[in-house]
Amino acid sequence: MKIKGVNLGNWLVLEKWMSPSLFEGTTAEDEYYLPAQLSPEVYEARIKIHRSEYITERDFASIKRIGLNAVRIPVPYFIYGDRPPYIGCIAELDKAFSWAEKYGLKILIDLHTAPMSQNGFDNGGLSGVCRWSQIPEEVEFELNVLEKLSERYGHREGLLGITPINEPVTEPMWSTMNVQKRYPPVDAEMAEGSAPNTMEFLKRFYKDAYSRIRPHLADEKYVVFHDAFRLKDWKEFFEEFRFERVMLDTHQYLMVAEMSGCSQTLDGYQEYIQNVFAKDIAEVQQYVDVICGEWCLFNSYAVGADTKGGQSVLNGVDVSKEKETMDADTRKQVYRQLADAQLAAWNKGIGYFYWSYKLLLDTVNEPEWSGWDSWDLGKCVDEGWFPIGG
Q1: How far apart are CA 5 and CA 352, in angstroms?
Q2: Which of 334, 344, 347, 324 is closest to 383 using CA atoms?
């Protein structure tokens, strides 16, 4: 079965750019600092209302209707409510499993964050800090969360698999992203010592995570390892350790291709998709199943200006004044061609999860967000940019 899925991003793990109103009245750029700037009552109400309204049963029905068969659900390390002041969300994940099973969808549980962060990105929950792998007790905390999740859901019909950690950054992505400049830390003392995870640590963590997760999973369920932005560096690892039912998760974005020198033209993107994305996935698929766990149609050409690798007004890069407006028909043709090309690339592996199902931006009245609606799969389907059925 080819996996045709979508991420439920910004539901249980917040990203400010996807719904800026959640952060109103604060200067917080990430989930770590949000409760520090709100009263406990306001924080709890804001989070609980968001979770109850952002994703509902109706969304699972819609995902099924557009021809997808799976969802990837990012969850935080505090999912069990044992890391105050953060509010747990295991009840929401329980509901998601019931909805998924009703509509015949599979769930990939993605442990998206770690204490003191595994990448320093805003989506890691703590911008500019990357110290998790240096703190043994926090590594053990993460392993315990994974073990509890696998015990709870390991035999649920709706489970596809579990990802031990999302996007652990290593070199060279730490340097390519210039993480601490792109995501400046609020607290320099906390960020001191931040550094990319080593491959040695990551391989050890993956082996430990597998040994904690696998015994609780039904035979057909997967353990899914993120490639740490190094898709082609895992062959010896998989040859040495004879894992059962594993996937390698790779995240491939056109904005990162732009940072790697891909020209910001339709031809440039298509050439890169064919010669890099598709070629690399086909090569790695020969020895391990490859899933593209995150991708989208967003690109600077359709935006009409260089977004500097997908940076927005929240990064201090407001390109709204320098845009060359693309008419609706041209934009639709560009997106459809890029959708078709990327879907063909992901089919060299075993499928994909689009990032993301929805976001709450006003791209009409706030011109700085024009072009960012291509991250929103629901909008992409409605506009005819993305083919129903994937």
Answers
A1: 6
A2: 334
